[in-house]
Amino acid sequence: MEWNIALPSQAGNDAKPDWRIAQKAWWDAILLMEANPSVVRITLEMRIMGGSDVFLAAQRGNNLGTVVIEVLTTLITPTDDWVKFCQKLVDGWLAYKNSSGMQLPSRPHWAKQWSYLKFPDANGKQLTATEWFRQVAFREEIPLFMDALKKIGGDDFTVEELRSRFANQYLESIFWGAPDPAGDIVRPDDLGGKRIGTKIKKWLKGCFS
């Protein structure tokens, strides 16, 4: 899972970022990892990025920068433990506010795990991930994106033709309001552990024989 949090401005100085948010996001993750030592089995990593004017970028509008934090585990981590950990971490990050008391914009990386999470709307109602993408996170950006696709296509292709070729369950739900596909996540039982373990042993044996 990878999350993008907008850096707020310092109180009384709109031109400078408040770096304390980066520290807080990082240490909130570390403290949760220490409280759940068996869940995160690979790494936690953070980087600072700029903002973006790309319509569907997770960093869109973050003019003072973006705190990007990724948390990783192995595929054999108990699924329920991982989901609970990620949900609690994201709940904390979504609660961050600027000096005026406004919620900081934050969004997940499109290509990382997020489908199994729940997110609140402005009234606190819990939404599925695809509902939240459509109704909250990219509510203003999705129409801009669709309009841009129409203009790019011109007489050569239509948005419906792009939809027919490239859409999947998640894009259908986010862009066109199709039924939610439910939060897919790979579970240890799906991996065929013995079969994969045998393949790894054969591969290692080949490397050293």
* N- and C-termini, Cα separation: 38 Å
Got a strand count?
8
Structural class: alpha+beta
On the 0-100 scale, what is the average pLDDT? Answer: 90
Determine the fraction of residues in helical runs and give it as a percent range.
Answer: 40-55%
N-to-C series of helices and strands: EEEHEEHEEEHHHHH
Main β-sheet, spatial strand arrangement? 4-5-1-6
CATH topology of one domain: Alpha-Beta Plaits
SS field, number of helical segments? 7
> What does the radius of gyration come to?
20 Å
Report the sheet-strand fraction.
Answer: 15-25%
CATH architecture assignment name of one domain: 2-Layer Sandwich
**Can you summarize the main beta sheet?**
4 strands, antiparallel
Low-confidence stretches: none
CATH class of one domain: Alpha Beta
Outline type = globular
